[in-house]
Write a structure and sequence with these properties.
Blueprint: H1 3-10, H2 25-40, H3 59-70, E1 79-84, H4 89-102, E2 107-110, E3 122-124, E4 127-128, H5 131-151, H6 159-173, E5 178-182, E6 200-203, H7 211-214, H8 218-225, E7 234-237, H9 242-255, E8 258-261, H10 268-282, H11 287-296, E9 304-307, E10 311-314, H12 320-330, E11 338-342, H13 350-357, E12 363-366, H14 379-386, E13 395-398, H15 402-412, E14 418-422, H16 425-432, H17 438-444
Parallel strand pairs: 1-5, 1-6, 2-5, 6-7, 7-8, 10-14, 11-12, 11-14, 12-13
Antiparallel strand pairs: 2-3, 3-4, 9-10
Length: 448
């Protein structure tokens, strides 16, 4: 089929209306079947999954571009802000989305991972993509997915790449003027780096994470993230290490890109706010819209208080720098005893995270997340490591059942105690369903 036919298939512009009423069982069933279809594609014995190997790293962008070409290049004719970094990129993406929205722009954003349900990764204005529209787009893409799997020269599209394609199709149909794209992993070879002419590129900061893919030094990690810097864009960063931001400066100089570094701030939150304020001013957004956007911004599982008496906080901190921010936030709270519930992915630097958070806990419960497509660290192994950092008089246990761990913590905690769930977005997201169900997120198209 020629390009004209492809564009006709994918380009009808239909403004979806906010869906606030209860969905029929048919719509919900269809949505869950659509998610199962996408997630189930990974069980096919075909090489080329996202970031699965590094033998030909250039293939990832070629694969993404090949698929976007198949479906009519839905990434064209929109303005992009590209957000990378080790910590804070989800928060910054959300802040920029809210600031642009407050300034009257039609804005979409793509983030990952989802906390409760897949459609949370795709948002336009105040609402996530609706379950039925998500399913409609996937149904239209299925013939092209078949072609990519059967004839694609660069391997099969991964789940992440397909979700990005779905998001871009949706953004085009919604006639979005601005898109805020959060990098999934790294930057240089991330699927989001397929965009060609971003208006703004930015790296929040650099720290050790995903070292098995990005490199074992901060210079290598920074170099990978600097791969999003493109000629014609303006670059911003809040990175403080001289060797790293000077490397960013050199890249910007070679590509003739303006360079802005945020001055020293006291907290991670202040760095994020200063960063988005500088970007918004560069875009000509007024101070009132910036203040409104920052005030309206909130994200699930980012040190999120979901219950009082006892207080329960969910925090998806999953690397060293994020845990450091979590500890910083704890210092601003008043509580009698800290009940820590923690689980981690297998590929994280467990000791670097545990040595920061464990000494603050009066009782530690180590558990696991139950997501099937991500390998979890074994609680018994984390238990052995965590005991090295336990303060005198604290108690520690491990369990394979996170729901039971949470129930026991709530039951044993006093009203002035604090229960903190951290170490993994997957764990925090799974336990969040006790307060905010997936059905609620699907029906309201909102996380709150």
């Amino acid at each position: 089929m020629g390009t004209k036919g492809i564009i006709q298939l994918l380009s009808p512009v239909v403004k979806s209306r906010p869906t606030m009423k209860k969905f029929s069982p048919r719509i919900l069933l269809r949505y869950h079947q659509t998610v199962s279809y996408l997630e189930g594609l990974s069980n096919l014995p075909i090489a080329g999954d996202y970031m699965a190997g590094r033998h030909d790293v250039g293939m990832y962008l070629k694969k993404m571009r090949y698929f976007l070409n198949l479906i009519g290049n839905p990434d064209q004719h929109m303005k992009f802000i590209h957000v990378a970094g080790t910590a804070g990129k989800g928060t910054v993406t959300n802040l920029l989305h809210e600031i642009l929205l407050a300034s009257g722009k039609n804005v979409g954003s793509f983030t990952s991972p989802a906390v409760t349900t897949t459609l949370e990764e795709i948002r336009v204005g105040k609402l996530f993509i609706s379950p039925d529209e998500f399913s409609n787009i996937v149904d239209e893409l299925k013939p092209w997915i078949d072609i990519a799997y059967q004839k694609g020269p660069y391997g099969r599209p991964s789940l992440y790449e397909l979700l990005l394609a779905i998001a871009l199709v949706y953004f085009r149909r919604q006639r979005c003027e601005w898109i805020v794209l959060e990098v999934g992993l790294g930057g240089r070879y991330d699927a989001t780096n397929v965009i060609q002419k971003p208006v703004i590129t930015m790296v929040t900061n650099i720290d050790y994470d995903h070292t098995e893919l990005l490199g074992h030094t901060l210079q290598k990690i920074g170099f990978d993230k600097a791969g999003i810097i493109k000629r014609g864009s303006a670059f911003f960063t809040s990175e403080r290490r001289p060797a790293i931001f000077k490397m960013f400066q050199r890249v910007c100089g070679r590509k003739r890109v303006s360079f802005t570094r945020i001055g020293r701030q006291k907290t991670y939150q202040e760095y994020n706010h200063a960063l988005v304020t500088a970007i918004a001013k560069k875009l000509g957004i007024n101070a009132a819209s910036i203040r409104t956007g920052i005030r309206n911004a909130r994200l699930p599982c980012r040190f999120e208080r979901v219950q009082s008496t006892p207080t329960v906080i969910l925090d998806g901190a999953h690397n060293r720098s994020k845990i450091k921010s979590t500890v910083e936030n704890l210092r601003h709270l008043s509580f009698h005893a800290l009940h820590l519930i923690i689980g981690m992915a297998q590929n994280k630097n467990h000791d670097a995270m545990l040595r920061q958070i464990i000494p603050h806990a009066d009782r530690v419960s180590i558990t696991r997340f139950q997501t099937r497509n991500r390998e979890c660290a074994h609680p018994n192994e984390l238990l052995i490591r965590a005991k090295k950092y336990l303060k005198k008089g604290s108690r520690i246990e491990s369990s394979l059942d996170p729901e039971s761990v949470l129930s026991r913590a709530i039951k044993r905690a006093r009203k002035d105690d604090l229960i903190l769930v951290t170490g993994s977005f997957f764990l925090a997201g799974e336990l969040r369903k006790r307060w905010i169900t997936e059905e609620h997120c699907l029906e309201t198209r909102n996380s709150f």
